[in-house]
């Protein structure tokens, strides 16, 4: 099925390479904290609230490409301390950046080049803003620093859950809501949505939220709670870091048992075939279960397909799982993969991308069998969460193509055909811009009625905000190692293809987009025209107006957001 030549590659220093990759993941997973010297703090941050824990901290994003050292940071114990820190920052000309797990790629929190001399204050939410309580049988109140794993565990303990969720459990709720995080789910044929559930983004489940905002009459920043039926709430539901939310109330529903079946026996040419081709297509699995993900390693023919299905009782062939992260071969970098990555990075042996792709497929196929994880069943959390911070860290671009449900197979076919053609052409000229997988997910859109609040506002800047003629979002991500030559040029071609081929293309906020030949988040046409246009000028300007009005002093911003979130 695959080329196993990767097993013959010498690996004299394979253990050290694997250890390096794991150590890098561990360092990036948590903030590096240095206790503040009281005298230095008093000199540099005069008047800072004494009750708020203050320290020096480094910042690293998910792949370590956006970094900063020696930043001032604080860990407020509650929302009142958050407000005190923000009030001080405003009065002292500093900008506040909320930090959760830093599990993102784009410069929405910190921009590259930010240093200790810049007037930036990190507010760490994960330390204390982690409260969880049930307000009612269908509503949970949560601090924005709580992780998705902790949230889902809490819900599970009360017989509650979500239809879908992002795969990494370390994401903080505040970070997930800021960028309209999502899972993968649409209604299967004949499936009726359960009350309290949504096929859209996590943002679409917000009933109310509390944020730090400017109060013109008070002449100060204040804590204010916004209900979902308030117009201003629409901009805060997906705010991209232009606000600071301390607490949310989410609508939730009854938990479900989910079965997840993995397989690596369907050729990409069949799974991603043109509509009407017959065979085992992605559309066929969607019709049957509504919940799929395809992970397609480069230069291979057999994707790793995951299919989730609602199953109240354990199917006879399924293994019962009582905790998440059931793919250890994916969570921990295997020796053969570490060896190859080490050679590619240290020796610039990027031509090994086909070998790495086949090695990753082999590890996945063999790992599924060895760990008995090809057919698992359990409470929803235990099959939805499957990515730990120890996984191999790759750059990722991301887009949502909004389309009609009947057109999903066509979108997937046209995208994968273009991707395969361009990757083959690059390889023929000795260039290997991609060494990670293509990931494909499918979700519904944000329907305000799902939240059960009369007059509920639609998230303004969610990529899943409905548009005419569309009821489904196809999520397309391409992953590759940081620093891979020609990656930006290749990903620019993919981006241009998506925008020019599919009218409903939007960017996935947390990932890579706006490519030039040699950079990312820098194409002026994408940033200034295509992205605002994908929402419509009126919607875009309405969101910017609210965010500017609630934070006129731009305390919650950075240089990148200053240039992107402007009226068009």
Task: Chart the SSEs and their pairings.
Blueprint: H1 14-29, E1 33-35, H2 38-44, E2 53-60, E3 67-75, H3 79-91, E4 95-99, E5 120-124, E6 132-136, E7 139-143, H4 148-157, E8 160-161, H5 173-178, E9 206-215, E10 220-227, H6 233-236, E11 244-251, E12 253-254, E13 257-263, H7 268-271, H8 282-289, E14 291-296, E15 304-310, E16 319-320, H9 328-331, H10 335-346, H11 353-370, E17 375-379, H12 380-384, E18 395-396, E19 399-403, H13 408-428, E20 438-444, E21 472-480, H14 487-501, E22 505-507, H15 524-535, H16 537-550, H17 559-564
Parallel strand pairs: 3-5, 4-5, 16-17
Antiparallel strand pairs: 1-2, 2-3, 6-7, 7-11, 8-12, 9-10, 9-11, 13-15, 13-17, 14-15, 14-20, 18-21, 19-21, 19-22, 20-21
Structure description:
This protein is of the alpha+beta class and 568 residues long. It has helices spanning 14-29, 38-44, 79-91, 148-157, 173-178, 233-236, 268-271, 282-289, 328-331, 335-346, 353-370, 380-384, 408-428, 487-501, 524-535, 537-550, 559-564; strands spanning 33-35, 53-60, 67-75, 95-99, 120-124, 132-136, 139-143, 160-161, 206-215, 220-227, 244-251, 253-254, 257-263, 291-296, 304-310, 319-320, 375-379, 395-396, 399-403, 438-444, 472-480, 505-507. α1 (14-29) packs across α10, α13 (408-428) runs antiparallel to α14 and α15 crosses α16 (537-550). Residues 1-30 have low confidence and may be disordered.
């Amino acid at each position: 099925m695959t080329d196993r030549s990767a097993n013959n590659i010498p690996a004299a220093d394979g253990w050290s390479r694997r250890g390096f990759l794991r150590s890098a993941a561990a360092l990036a997973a948590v903030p590096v904290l240095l206790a503040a010297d009281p005298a230095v703090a008093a000199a540099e941050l005069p008047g800072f609230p004494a009750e708020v824990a203050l320290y020096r901290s480094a910042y690293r994003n998910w792949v370590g490409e956006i970094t900063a050292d020696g930043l001032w940071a604080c860990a407020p114990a509650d929302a009142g301390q958050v407000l005190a820190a923000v009030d001080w920052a405003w009065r002292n000309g500093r900008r506040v950046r909320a930090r959760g797990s830093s599990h993102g790629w784009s410069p929405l929190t910190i921009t590259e080049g930010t240093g200790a001399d810049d007037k930036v204050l990190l507010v760490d939410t994960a330390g204390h803003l982690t409260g969880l309580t049930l307000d009612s049988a269908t509503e949970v109140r949560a601090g924005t620093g709580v992780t998705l794993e902790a949230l889902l565990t809490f819900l599970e303990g009360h017989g509650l859950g979500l239809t879908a969720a992002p795969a990494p459990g370390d994401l903080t709720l505040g970070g997930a809501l800021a960028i309209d995080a999502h899972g993968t789910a649409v209604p299967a044929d004949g499936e009726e949505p359960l009350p309290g559930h949504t096929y859209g983004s996590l943002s679409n489940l917000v009933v109310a939220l509390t944020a730090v905002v400017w109060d013109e009459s008070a002449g100060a920043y204040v804590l204010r709670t916004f209900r979902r039926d308030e117009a201003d709430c629409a901009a805060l539901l997906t705010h991209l870091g232009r606000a600071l939310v301390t607490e949310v109330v989410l609508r939730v529903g009854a938990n479900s048992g989910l079965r997840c079946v993995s397989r690596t026996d369907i050729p990409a040419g069949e799974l991603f075939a043109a509509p009407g081709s017959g065979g085992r297509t992605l559309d066929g699995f969607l019709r049957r279960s509504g919940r799929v993900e395809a992970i397609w390693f480069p230069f291979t023919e057999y994707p790793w397909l995951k299919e989730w299905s609602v199953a109240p009782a354990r199917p006879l062939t399924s293994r019962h799982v009582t905790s998440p992260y059931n793919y250890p071969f994916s969570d921990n970098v295997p020796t053969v993969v570490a060896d190859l990555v080490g050679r590619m990075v240290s020796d610039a042996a990027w031509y090994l991308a086909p070998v790495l792709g086949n090695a990753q497929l082999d590890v996945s196929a063999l790992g599924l069998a060895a760990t008995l994880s090809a057919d698992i069943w359990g409470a929803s959390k235990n099959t939805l969460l499957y990515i730990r911070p120890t996984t191999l860290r790759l750059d990722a671009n991301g887009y949502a193509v909004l389309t009609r449900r009947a057109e999903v197979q066509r979108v997937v076919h046209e995208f994968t055909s273009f991707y395969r053609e361009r990757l083959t052409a690059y390889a023929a000229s000795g260039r290997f811009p991609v060494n990670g997988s293509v990931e494909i997910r499918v979700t519904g859109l944000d329907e305000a009625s799902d939240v059960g609040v009369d007059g509920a506002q639609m998230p303004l800047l969610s990529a899943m905000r409905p548009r005419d003629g569309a009821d489904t979002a196809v999520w397309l991500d391409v992953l590759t190692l940081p620093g891979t030559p020609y990656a930006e040029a290749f990903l620019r071609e993919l981006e241009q293809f998506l925008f020019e081929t599919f009218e409903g293309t939007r960017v996935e906020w947390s990932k890579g987009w706006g490519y030039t030949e040699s950079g990312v988040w820098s194409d002026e046409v994408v940033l200034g025209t295509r992205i605002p246009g994908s929402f419509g000028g009126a919607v875009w300007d309405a969101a910017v107006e609210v965010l500017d009005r609630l934070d006129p002093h731009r305390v919650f911003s950075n240089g990148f957001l200053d240039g992107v979130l402007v009226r068009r």
